[in-house]
């Protein structure tokens, strides 16, 4: 429709311009001169012819005024009259000019109608072919659901804008499918992790209820195991809440010293450090960053706790802060480079050997670190060490 309208407007403009130029190129009555050929005895007739030419919009020819000798006229004739197809010459010129302009206008209008019709039909065919991929994109989008995210457009054809759009849509579906799958795994893992302490609580209570005459030491032992399971569940729920909060928009309103936060995290983990016989070295220079206090504290704490819990007996931990970044390195089991990305996923515990020897935890530490770093626009790098363990660095850009 737009193509037809554009063709009509352009054709009308061309038609009008053509009409004006043609009208100017055709001589009008005022542009025709009348040459008189009367002799001297017919001076009165010559004057009458001049007056008639002036009345019709014509002018005497320039040669008449300069010619000292008038053309000879047939003897005895007072005037000479000239007619074209029975009409006065000037009237004939005016009528012929009008006829030609009418013919031009009629033929141009017919040509304009033909051009507009052809443009509409051609535009409809070309637009239909060009926009067919958009129909495929729309149909695919309407078919998609949580159970059919595997479908793709896979548009074939030249590398034009429409194929680029379809490829971008497929890439978006890849990311969306990956995110949904990751979320489903997260829910399943969280359910499994919560089920374990709840099963412990239920088993302990069932055993106590099955004993008709439980002793006080037995009850106290059962209560201790139930308390440990409750603490484990509380820690897991707290970690899940931190992870969920870090994935939302956060307010970067607090000025935080990474050196102070790291020192507090090391002090809080001193009991676990002593129990494992770890050697901790620190290089904590004051460096202030802006962020959410609770989330940044959780990031630093998880970095230190992860280095302590996923270590080996008698291993080392090094914590350093400077220039808006914190770096934590620890000894531990050897981790392949292709396993690093998996460690950043929720409930990941690394290699099987490290998972068996890890003291406590739910596999959420590095996942929380990555999520909090992303929420603050910080750069996270995780590097496996050749002798085992990891080096994790978080660099904040907002300082």
Written overview of the protein:
The protein is of the alpha/beta class and 399 residues long. It has helices spanning 2-25, 43-55, 62-66, 89-143, 161-210, 216-246, 258-268, 270-276, 293-309, 340-343, 352-357, 365-375, and strands at 33-34, 59-60, 254-257, 279-284, 288-291, 316-322, 325-330, 379-384, 390-395. Strand 8 (379-384) and strand 9 form a beta hairpin. Helix 1 packs antiparallel against helix 4, helix 4 runs parallel beside helix 5 and helix 5 (161-210) packs antiparallel against helix 6. A five-stranded mixed sheet has the order 4-6-7-9-8, with helices on one face. The chain contains twelve helices and nine strands. Mean pLDDT is 77; it is low at 38-43, 64-73 and 352-359.
Characteristics:
alpha/beta; single chain; 59% helix; 399 residues; 12 helices; five-stranded mixed β-sheet; two-stranded parallel ribbon; 11% strand
